[in-house]
Design brief:
With 409 residues, this protein is of the alpha/beta class. The protein is 37% helix and 19% strand. It has helices spanning 77-90, 98-108, 117-137, 141-145, 166-179, 195-213, 229-238, 256-265, 278-287, 298-301, 303-316, 328-335, 356-360, 387-393, and strands at 3-14, 22-23, 51-61, 66-70, 153-158, 162-163, 183-187, 218-222, 247-248, 270-272, 293-294, 320-321, 342-345, 362-363, 368-369, 372-373, 384-385, 394-401. The longest helix has 21 residues, at 117-137. Bound molecules: magnesium ion. Magnesium ion binds next to loops.
Length: 409
């Protein structure tokens, strides 16, 4: 079999720019700035405007099998990387040569890659190749990764952003329990720049959700890299009695030493890895004893070919793997592993209105029913391009073809 064509769809969902009443900590929250402090909601410019984008690829073969993948929380720059760097390496090759293709793409882009958009771009192609392999062999991808480990995957509802209105936050959290979820992840709203008042507000947010859902439902909380080490240790100690299942990404991903010190200083489990790349990056993270729960973003960190190795590495360290995101490739990897107890699901009815785009460009992505996800047993990943959504959100399109010799036409 030969790869004959790669379609690259750059998609953009413009934000409507209206002020919003929900938020999360971000990597910008370390410094105090009265214009962006979450304690001062009067400033209409406080929330960052912007667009949500993604890059979706469809890989075609001479035997009629096609596969799809996408770039994790994609930058449009990934399309350029695919056009100029990756497509010439992949066109004309056999999609079954996964390891060789991965190493070729990774090694050819080292000077612009290793971490970031180049690895994200190769991740999308790698995932599409696994989709092709599944279709060509007539097997769901999890059967190529180790087979079923259970009948369904337990899901956690990932929403509950910080809000001023704590009654609304409590009602939102209760709603997920009523839908059947037995685990929820919420967001902290304040960072070092918000001082002691912000710390008290963070505790109030967690206490509100804990009280709303009771003690039987697992509750995790996300800091999205919004803290530094001193703040993280003090803040996590302030909520230890509220029984968090984990605190996610307390500091910047490169602060591996800080992660390890935070983990040793608190009893709440620490999770991370959503912004880490490749087996090598995870090797450094795990060797440092930085996290209790490993959270690779598969279409960011290197695709399924590299994710398999990270899953094996985590197993050797005795750690759980709870990948970032709700896409089908995650469901297949989780289904084939004894180390992955949960899948992240972003409920459609959550407070966060964005990410419509991410929920629409593929049909067949995992959805939770009564808190559980059933994995598609269709060949491949079990998802298809939604052409209406591709039209609706289209920003640019590329068609990259191989000539008779296999070179970029
Ligand atoms: Mg996260």
């Amino acid at each position: 079999m030969r790869i004959t064509q790669i379609d690259v769809h750059s998609l953009v969902e413009p934000t409507n720019g209206s002020p919003r009443d929900w938020w999360s900590t971000t990597p910008l929250d370390v410094l105090y700035d009265p214009r962006v402090s979450h304690l001062d909601r009067r400033q209409p410019g406080a929330e960052r405007a912007g667009v949500i984008s993604n890059v979706v690829v469809q890989v075609h073969t001479d035997e009629g099998f096609t596969g799809v993948g996408n770039v994790g929380v994609g930058s449009p720059a990934a399309a350029t990387v695919i056009e100029h760097h990756l497509a010439p390496l992949v066109l004309g090759r056999d999609p079954f040569d996964l390891e060789s293709l991965w190493q070729t793409m990774y090694r050819h882009t080292l000077s612009i890659g290793r971490k970031g958009v180049a690895v994200e771009a190769l991740s999308a192609i790698d995932i599409a190749l696994w989709d092709i392999l599944g279709k060509a062999t007539g097997q769901p991808v999890y059967n190529l990764l180790g087979g079923r480990t259970r009948t369904a995957i337990r899901a956690y509802a990932s929403q509950c952003y910080a809000r001023e209105d704590l009654d609304a936050l409590a009602a939102e959290a209760r709603g997920y329990v009523e839908q059947g979820f037995t685990a929820i992840k919420m967001r902290f709203g304040y960072g070092p720049g918000d001082g002691r008042r912000g710390m008290a507000r963070n505790r109030e947010l967690v206490a509100t959700v804990r009280e709303a859902i009771g003690t039987d439902v697992e509750l995790a909380a996300e800091a999205y890299m919004g803290w530094d080490e001193i703040y993280a240790i003090a803040m996590i100690r302030m909520v230890e009695d509220l029984g968090l299942a984990w605190v996610e990404e307390p500091v910047l991903p490169d602060r591996i030493d800080a992660y390890a010190r935070i983990r040793r200083s608190v009893s709440t489990p620490i999770s991370g890895g959503e912004h880490e790349f490749t087996l090598q990056g995870f090797h450094q993270l795990l060797q440092a004893g930085a996290v209790d729960i490993v959270q690779p973003d598969v279409n960011r960190m290197g695709g399924i070919t590299e994710a398999r190795k990270v899953w094996a590495l985590a197993e050797a360290h005795g750690l759980r793997v709870v990948p970032h995101g709700n896409q089908a490739h995650n469901a297949h990897l989780i289904m084939a592993s004894f180390s992955s107890p949960l899948i992240e699901i972003f409920p459609d009815d959550g407070v966060r209105p964005g990410y419509k785009l991410h929920h629409e460009f593929f049909d067949g992505e995992p959805r939770a029913k009564a808190g559980w996800v059933e994995t598609s047993d269709r060949p491949g990943l079990g998802i298809e391009l939604n052409h209406d959504a591709i039209e609706r959100y289209r920003a640019a399109e590329l068609t990259l073809r191989a000539d008779a010799s296999g070179a970029l036409a």
